[in-house]
Amino acid sequence: MERVKTIDFDELVVNLKSMYEKIGSLSYYIFAIKYGNSLKGQNLSEIVRAANLTESMSKELSKGLRIYDILSKNDFGIALKNEDDNKWHNPIDDKSVSLSDLADILYRMEADKKEYGIGATATAFGFKYGKAITTGGYTCGAIIDEAKNRHPDFDLTHTHNATIKYGVDLCQMLENHAFGLLSPKMSSVDANTSIKLCDIKGNLSLQQIYYGAPGTGKSYEINEKTKGCSVIRTTFHPDSDYSTFVGAYKPTMGKGKVYGAQGPVKDENNNVIEEERITYTFIKQAFLKAYLSAWKKYTENDESSVEPQFLVIEEINRGNCAQIFGDLFQLLDRSDNGFSTYPIEADADLQNEIKKAFAEEYEFKLSQDIAVDSAVKNYASNYGKTLSDDIQNGRILLLPPNLCIWATMNTSDQSLFPIDSAFKRRWEWRYVKIGNGYKRDEYGSFVRDADGKRVPLGWTIRCGETNTDWWQFIQAINNHIGEATSSDDKKLGYFFCKPKKGEDFIGEEAFVGKVIFYLWNDVFKDNDTSLFKLDNSNREPSFDEFYTEDEDGNTIANQEAISKFICNVLGKEYKSQDDTNE
Fold first, then answer.
1. In whole angstroms, how far apart are CA 69 and each of 111, 123, 131, 508?
2. pTM above 0.85, yes or no
3. Element housing 333 (H / E)
4. Going by CATH, does the domain composed of 207-245+286-429 fall within 3.30.300?
5. Is 228:181 a contact under the CB 8 Å cutoff?
6. What letter does residue 507 receive in the DSSP assignment?
7. 276 pLDDT more than 50
8. What is the pLDDT of residues 286-341, one digit of tens each?
9. I need a surface site. Which of 181, 218, 461, 545 has the fewest CB within 10 A?
């Protein structure tokens, strides 16, 4: 919640727009909780309209303000602020609560506080008991049904599932310290499942690369760990360079003065005439946005509660890292305090953009001056200024300790642009192991059986009427890949190929087009191709055999060829899912 000062209309608009881009519709509630005091007396419709969002969503913002009132007034014991000692507290109840108790609590909250509106009270319930709901594996619908069974006069229906879930999502946002709503001392969240606010002492990994076989869930793991935090994401590719990573001047359409022989041309009212024309504007890219945002966050809090800024680079080895990072490479050396050990000089264009952003642009404007003169040992300015002044005016670049750069790398693609050892040693490396896939609930937590064990997804490969266990196939084909290549690089992860939405099987077309094609073209093409032999003849196998034509002349996957290939891969262990279930 907002703790320091009220902010003006323009800044509210910028903050709402930025928050909406990060978390979507949930932003209306988070925004209202954080800026509730500043929103009092404001025209909510005008704020939403100025942010170029759907005007009807001002109702959601109004509901968020009702939640803010609930939190501020200590109703239901969930206030963020204790008026007695003026301290901020974590309202999240992390105790284990039974389904029947949750149903009774929801009933009492609805009965006692209907003046706030059913939706706001239901969201407040989800907010306080979100962790208990998630840990217990309860669905919002199950809680409502239980409340109806125990209290016939209870008037919530399944149409209110979403309002409770909003509260649960708010709970997760607060536990992950989204948007600086709470200080790290207030959290009971498990550090293994989500990222806390940046620890200046260096407990948070500043630069790390998640690597492993394709389909192991590297991007998913980063996404889960950074949930609720500010993340700027980019993807490297062969055409990536310094300008697409940091920023550069690009032609854009804008207004410009019309000049004649005597200077600017004016109309009959003596106003300078402007026309649409191509102008050159400095366009910020992922690195610069993350850099500016990190410094802004660093100046807004004390060292115990600095909010992290993540820069996530997908497929880092698909681009030429030396070319893309350029002299930024030097900044990756971090001292024990988390700052870059060696600051670098910024060129004139970059210097001007940084200075302007810190001083004028709402998204990056500093609320307080940078004060880190002791961050770099024995620093001597080339401009006769302090370290802080050089950073704030863009003369030098220095990574702050809350800027975390995380990346993913498919080991199967490592030959695209080999990463040199000097670059490698500046990163921590986190291997993502190939493993079975497991079910997760709507909140991202693992679904567990009665014995507390994770429940497998149980995907299959469907060929005609036959289903083959996908994990069984993954294990078998990876054994063949290891024997053929003497390496783990080309092996398949569980999520290499996925079923269509709403299905639990991988269809024939997807299996041939993605799995068999990859194995044929990228793994076994120059190795033993006996797995692809579909008969006992001496001729070489052909990928074309995995397709055939239907009666209308359409090219379709060849079921017989797929079945034979799966049989070749699984060998004597081959047994269809249908056979297993008999």
1. 18, 13, 22, 55
2. no
3. none
4. no
5. no
6. -
7. yes
8. 999 999 999 999 998 776 678 889 999 999 988 999 999 999 999 999 998 899 99
9. 545
